[in-house]
Q: What sequence folds into this?
């Protein structure tokens, strides 16, 4: 096993373990800012911990090395190399090459999808007219699609909403913009591109997106908006198609 493959496998194992830990200890609490920090730390630790030279630390402690040698000498059986192993190794190489082709193909497709979505947001930024609504600069969508934000760009179709609904949307999307939620979205998307075959990375991405929406919803209710009317507003927009999946969509 090459060092690169070992590093890659360690990352994916760590993601699976961290997701299980998150579901066990964080899933049902309402400390949304702590949950956000925990999810970002899980991604970061998964990337960094395989770089630690644990073998070098073990070799520096001679008693541990002696114990490992004693264990290998007494308890482990000797491995006899037979001619049939050459065929097995050849099959392993074929399987590895096939797995590499599948992995790189999936990664290239997801990378292309990522840049297409990013390009669609940038294109909307230049195509949409700008206006100030309730003191906030927004991009006016030409079609009836769900409102969303990307960093400090807020997109909305004002004709589809009442004054109170626009106020809720502005508060919601401003929260995403001020707290830089798009950084979390992009980070989780990039992790999904590189670890796309791991189902736990997609579950982690869903948790990241959901937690960001909880944070924005919580801010809307903190400003005094009625919770019942806000819920109906969200339900009313549930069928609206998002203009871009990379964005923070109001109707999630």
A:
């Amino acid at each position: 096993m090459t060092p690169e493959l070992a590093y890659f496998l360690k990352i994916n194992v760590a993601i699976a373990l961290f997701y299980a830990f998150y579901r066990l200890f964080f899933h049902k609490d309402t400390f949304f800012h702590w949950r956000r920090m925990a999810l970002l730390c899980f991604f970061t630790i998964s990337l960094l911990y395989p770089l630690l030279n644990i073998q070098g630390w073990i070799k520096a402690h001679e008693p541990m090395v002696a114990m490992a040698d004693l264990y290998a000498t007494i308890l482990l059986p000797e491995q006899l190399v037979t001619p049939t192993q050459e065929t097995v190794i050849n099959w392993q190489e074929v399987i590895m090459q096939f797995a590499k082709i599948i992995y790189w193909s999936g990664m290239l497709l997801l990378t292309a999808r990522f840049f297409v979505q990013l390009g669609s947001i940038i294109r909307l930024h230049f195509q949409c007219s700008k206006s100030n609504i309730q003191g906030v600069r927004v991009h006016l969508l030409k079609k009836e699609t769900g409102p969303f934000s990307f960093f400090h760009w807020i997109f909305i179709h004002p004709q589809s909403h009442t004054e109170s609904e626009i106020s809720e949307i502005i508060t919601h999307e401003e929260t995403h913009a001020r707290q830089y939620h798009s950084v979390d979205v992009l980070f989780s998307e990039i992790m999904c591109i590189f670890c796309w075959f791991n189902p736990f990375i997609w579950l982690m991405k869903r948790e990241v997106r959901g937690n960001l929406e909880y944070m924005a919803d919580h801010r809307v209710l903190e400003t005094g908006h009625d919770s019942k009317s806000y819920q109906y507003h969200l339900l009313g927009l549930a069928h609206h198609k998002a203009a871009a999946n990379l964005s923070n969509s109001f109707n999630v």
Observations:
- The CA atoms of residues 7 and 51 lie 7 Å apart.
